[in-house]
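// run 5 | inverse folding | seed 20
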């Protein structure tokens, strides 16, 4: 479909939708939202598939869980087993150590969208009872109770997840507004990493992973080794050390645990040809562009301040070829909105003091106040109901969500917090995005790829990413404000968040860097593009003139065939590998390079993206003899932006091209016509 056809179709859809548009009132004191249950359904939305159960195994896209009585005995994730041994509860009591694993689950519910079961274990006088569920995106919740018929001293309580080392290569951990990091897993037998409690842990490789999460540490022992990672002979063990000191168990204690094998869904075909931007217009037609909250009645409120002007704005962007994603957030709106005012004490997300986590007089210069609200309250019922009215009245193409993480909350009125400790409502955060994702697909049933776009800088919350199509990490690297070194964007960070493969959503790096430092823009493009990622075009933050040619060239190549094969940096075949030579102290040495490649099999054309992440300019060295053998007797290596040929591609076994420091080059490599 060409751009003119797309604009005509978008215009027709907008016109037909607005002809019957009705005004709506989100301030109705009768509060119809309280019973509407918008976005809550047992139907399985596209592209997810119904669960398939068979003899204690539950399968969904890409994964099969082998249920145990409480914990899964095994998870098969895209042809790989996650566990080297069965996960287990470990209890020490009366001088004896018990390892409780496997067992048989008693299934109590079997639906296409959800399976539920229960199980129990005993360890001496101690009993573990649990109920659990697993849904079609692969998220599992286990609620277990530890009890004893008579008061019993427990010396230790914990869980162990012995993962296959080849799968557990990387670690990402975080607690929203707390510590976070992206690390390499322990490699040598005996290596150990220890951490205080954090809510969320992900261990994985380039294609898959496992998230283990807890919403609070109310009943955990405090200490520096609440979580431990140890490399053993044949496993990398994630240990959750819940009780590390003797405890008298004289009443039942309840815990909740979440598991999630990632990704939840595959990336769509040719996703690198789909752009997300804060502004694109005629420069990048077809991009998903955010419409900022200043056009809304209140901050993050599903009703525009001026309905006619809002429809005109949407029409203008559609005519430019943009797809519109208005700005919202799951974490609040204005305290001046009547519904918020009525439910203020129940909905606010509080600090330990009882004060709201934040109240702002303005956000990004907008005219509306904002307050932080909690997804564990009934606020999502209001927000999803309001969003349904919004989507019925305005022909938008997706939804952009800022502040998307499960921030800490101590508001007892909706069940958060205890004894001065905060809750991190991860399951409620997931439920919010699940409802929005479902609602969007119910309202947009055509083939226009409606998207949920999430800003999630610092935190990969995989249970919510199940219901996200595009995510933006990177705002934490505020170079101009905090002068963070480029070394903070580590190879591990790039491997975990830059390709989207482990999460099933498209990555778009969100730069918080100024065009006043052009070398940062060049470095940002060099860091992202070999991974299939882009640095979001944001004029004012980034230099669009430096980015546009690369973005257009890549999109054109990706869209040229349904059979394009993208090689990520760790997948580059030998014949496409390059070396960058730089000089240090008068000596020629190998610089830091990252390479990605798109290969079009029907005519053997290659779009090669090579980045020099060194701090020195260098020579890009290609193995042209290997390229000739793979693609044809004679080839050309041309600059993909200008088409300028090298004129040296067939002269020798190797060829060198210049590449400045902190930059990438995009090369078009192809067989010459007479050799086809």
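// decoded
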């Amino acid at each position: 479909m060409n751009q003119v056809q797309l604009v005509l179709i978008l215009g027709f859809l907008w016109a037909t939708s607005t002809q019957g548009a009705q005004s709506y009132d989100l301030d109705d004191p009768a509060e119809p939202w309280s019973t509407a249950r918008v976005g809550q359904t047992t139907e399985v939305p596209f592209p997810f598939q119904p669960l398939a159960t068979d003899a204690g195994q539950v399968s969904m896209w890409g994964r099969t869980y082998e249920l145990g009585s409480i914990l899964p005995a095994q998870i098969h994730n895209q042809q790989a087993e996650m566990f080297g041994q069965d996960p287990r509860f470990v209890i020490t009591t009366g001088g004896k150590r018990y390892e409780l694993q496997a067992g048989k689950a008693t299934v109590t519910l079997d639906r296409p969208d959800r399976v539920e079961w229960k199980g129990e274990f005993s360890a001496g006088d101690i009993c573990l009872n649990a109920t659990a569920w697993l849904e079609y995106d692969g998220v599992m919740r286990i609620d277990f109770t530890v009890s004893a018929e008579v008061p019993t001293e427990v010396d230790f309580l914990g869980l162990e997840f012995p993962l296959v080392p080849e799968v557990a290569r990387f670690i990402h951990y975080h607690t929203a507004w707390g510590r976070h990091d992206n690390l390499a897993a322990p490699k040598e037998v005996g290596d150990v990493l220890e951490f205080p409690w954090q809510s969320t842990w992900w261990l994985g490789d380039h294609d898959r992973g496992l998230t283990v999460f807890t919403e609070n540490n109310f009943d955990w022992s405090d200490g520096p080794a609440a979580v431990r990672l140890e490399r053993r002979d044949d496993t990398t063990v994630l240990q959750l050390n819940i009780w590390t000191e003797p405890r008298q168990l004289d009443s039942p204690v309840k815990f909740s645990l979440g598991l999630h094998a990632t990704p939840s869904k595959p990336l769509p075909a040719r996703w690198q040809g789909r752009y997300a931007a804060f502004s694109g217009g005629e420069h990048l037609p077809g991009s998903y562009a955010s419409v900022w909250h200043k056009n809304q009645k209140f901050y993050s409120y599903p009703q525009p301040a001026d309905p006619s002007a809002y429809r005109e704005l949407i029409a203008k962007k559609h005519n430019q070829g943009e797809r519109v994603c208005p700005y919202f957030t799951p974490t609040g709106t204005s305290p001046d909105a009547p519904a918020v005012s009525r439910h203020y004490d129940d909905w606010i997300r509080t600090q330990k003091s009882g004060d709201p986590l934040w109240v702002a007089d303005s956000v990004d210069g907008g005219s509306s106040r904002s307050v932080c609200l909690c997804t564990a309250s009934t606020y999502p019922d209001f927000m999803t109901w309001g969003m349904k009215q919004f989507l019925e009245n305005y022909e938008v193409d997706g939804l952009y969500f800022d502040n998307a993480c499960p921030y800490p909350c101590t508001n007892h009125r909706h069940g958060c917090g205890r004894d001065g400790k905060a809750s991190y409502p991860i399951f409620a955060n997931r439920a919010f995005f699940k409802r929005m994702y479902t609602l969007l697909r119910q309202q947009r049933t055509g083939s226009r790829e409606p998207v949920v776009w999430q800003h999630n800088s610092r935190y990969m919350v995989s249970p919510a990413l199940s219901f996200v199509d595009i995510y933006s990490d990177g705002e934490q690297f505020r170079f101009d404000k905090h002068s963070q070194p480029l070394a903070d964007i580590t190879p591990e960070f790039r491997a975990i968040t830059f390709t989207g493969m482990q999460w099933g959503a498209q990555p778009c790096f969100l730069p918080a860097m100024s065009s006043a430092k052009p070398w940062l823009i060049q470095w940002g493009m060099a860091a992202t593009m070999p991974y299939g990622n882009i640095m979001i075009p944001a004029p004012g933050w980034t230099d669009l003139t430096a980015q546009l040619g690369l973005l257009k060239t890549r999109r054109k190549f990706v869209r040229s065939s349904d059979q394009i094969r993208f090689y990520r940096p760790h997948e580059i075949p030998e014949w496409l590998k390059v070396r960058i030579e730089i000089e240090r102290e008068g000596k020629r040495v190998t610089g830091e390079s990252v390479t990605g490649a798109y290969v079009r099999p029907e005519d053997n054309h290659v779009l090669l993206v090579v980045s020099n992440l060194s701090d020195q300019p260098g020579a890009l060295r290609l193995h042209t003899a290997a390229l000739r053998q793979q693609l044809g007797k004679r080839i050309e290596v041309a600059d993909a932006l200008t088409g300028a040929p090298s004129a040296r591609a067939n002269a020798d076994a190797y060829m060198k091209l210049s590449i400045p420091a902190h930059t990438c080059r995009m090369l078009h490599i192809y067989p010459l016509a007479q050799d086809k």
